[in-house]
Amino acid sequence: MMCEKEMADAYITDMVADVTECREDYSGRGKIFIWHCLLASFQQVYSVCAYVLIVILHTRSYVYTHILVFVYS
Hints:
The protein is mainly α. It has helices at 2-25, 31-60, 62-72.
């Protein structure tokens, strides 16, 4: 379980770094680029929520995890 928690923490850290880098790349270029960064951050948050749900289900049931992976892929 600790290994899965470390993987989730690393994934969230990468997500924050990606959003920060996106914001720095598009700073000063207009509102459309700000919306692009917001959309990217929402997609990353959705991915993190799906990943955390998969980790939780994996500890509960092997079958449910594979059903969830199939649905999200």
